[in-house]
Each structure stands twice: as structure tokens, then as C-alpha cells.
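testing teh design pipeline on a random one, pls ignore if ur not involved
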């Protein structure tokens, strides 16, 4: 049994490049992948252990386009790419600034596409996982840019998988629900909004970053070799209501 599980879900010998892997959800994903045996390359910061990190500004196209050439130059044979970097900015749509819009688009969406494209063009990464959101399926409130990017991430997942799965590059996404991170602090501090969220969530609690560990290991491992273009929801049952 142990050998079977190791064969199906183990990531020993695999190298994972993950954006935004130093805190919140990204940190939990990095820890889970490392525990499954993967070597982790972080593009933002280091969380200790068997990790290597490089700093890039993912709101800058010039820096985004350096990432894959740098991986090749440093001789990192990346097997898996996880785009977890993400920003949130809450504001009514009529007051939403162009600067905030552009920054969220670049970090949440464009960076993931450009890195994935460059990896496919250079033969890196057999598996790609984007971090979407339950707002990939919902409109949200006072989060026009975040909702737009996460909706696009969901569709990008399907579009890229349609093109690349037959060529050996599998693309999937994880859509977290309401998770305790810095991005959701404003909601947790707002008593009425938090109450509404918990009332709708069948498990009756906020998610923790570690609740996504099983999903990321599954989607990065051999166990998911026949899974493509999937947006895997991890939300405590929220969308089922």
C-alpha cells in the first residue's frame, strides 16, 4: 500500500516552480509539495528547508519574461509550474483606479499566462496548476478586478489544456473558497459579512491554507494524469448552497 501511494502521489525527483509561495496559500502549497518529495523553486521568497528562491516583480512584464530564461540559465529542469501569486484590492467599481486594475491583471492573470507560454515553448513543465477562486464562478462585491482575473484564470485553464494536453502538458486549477489569509482579513474583520459567509458554508468554518494540500499534491502527481482543464473547488461546500 505504501509503495502504491508513493508511486501515485509521490513527487520525489520533481522540480516545482511556484509563484507567491512564501505566505498564505502559496506557503501551504509549497510545504505540501515539498513533503511529497518535490524540490521547490519560489519566485518571491523562501520558507526554509529544501527551497531555492528568486525575486521577481510579477507586475512587471519585463521581469516576468526573465523567469523562464533564468530557469534555463540556472539549469533548473522544471517539471511543474504553480501560479499562486495573487493580489486583492477592494473598492466600488466606480472608484476603482486604473493602476490597481492593471496591477491585479498583471499579477493574477498575465504573469501566469506568460510563464506558462514560455515554459511550453521551451519544453519545461509537464503539469501546470493555476490558483483560481470561487469568484471564478461568482461576481463578488467590490472586487471587480480580482473577480475578472479569477474568472479569466478559470477559462485560461481550459483553453491552455485544450491546446497542450495532447502534447504532454496538463493544465488544471484549484478554486479555493474563503480561506484565512491576508487577502480575506477585511471580510473576517467585518462581522456581518463574516456571518453571512459562515452561514452559507456547510462546514461552518473558514478554510485554512493547509486544506488545499491534498488537492495540489493530487493535481501535480501521477494520480491526476487523466485530469485536464479541471477547476477543482475547495470551499467547504460553499458553492453547493
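output:
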Amino acid at each position: 500500500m505504501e509503495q502504491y501511494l508513493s508511486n501515485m502521489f509521490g513527487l520525489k525527483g520533481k522540480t516545482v516552480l511556484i509563484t507567491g509561495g512564501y505566505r498564505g496559500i502559496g506557503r501551504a502549497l509549497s510545504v505540501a509539495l515539498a513533503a511529497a518529495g518535490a524540490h521547490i523553486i519560489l519566485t518571491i521568497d523562501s520558507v526554509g528547508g529544501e527551497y531555492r528562491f528568486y525575486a521577481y516583480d510579477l507586475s512587471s512584464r519585463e521581469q516576468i519574461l526573465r523567469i523562464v530564461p533564468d530557469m534555463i540559465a540556472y539549469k533548473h529542469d522544471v517539471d511543474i509550474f504553480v501560479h499562486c501569486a495573487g493580489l486583492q484590492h477592494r473598492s466600488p467599481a466606480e472608484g476603482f483606479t486604473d493602476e490597481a486594475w492593471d496591477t491585479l491583471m498583471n499579477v493574477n492573470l498575465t504573469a501566469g499566462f506568460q510563464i506558462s507560454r514560455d515554459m511550453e515553448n521551451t519544453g519545461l513543465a509537464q503539469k501546470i496548476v493555476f490558483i483560481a477562486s470561487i469568484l471564478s464562478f461568482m461576481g463578488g462585491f467590490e472586487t471587480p478586478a480580482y473577480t475578472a482575473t479569477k474568472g479569466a484564470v478559470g477559462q485560461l485553464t481550459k483553453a491552455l489544456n485544450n491546446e497542450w494536453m495532447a502534447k504532454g502538458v496538463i493544465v488544471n486549477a484549484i478554486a479555493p473558497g474563503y480561506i484565512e489569509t491576508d487577502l480575506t482579513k477585511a471580510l473576517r474583520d467585518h462581522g456581518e459579512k463574516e456571518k453571512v459567509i459562515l452561514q452559507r458554508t456547510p462546514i461552518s468554518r473558514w478554510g485554512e491554507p493547509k486544506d488545499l494540500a491534498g488537492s495540489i499534491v493530487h493535481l501535480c502527481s501521477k494520480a491526476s494524469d487523466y485530469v485536464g482543464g479541471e477547476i477543482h473547488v475547495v470551499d467547504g461546500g460553499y458553492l453547493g448552497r
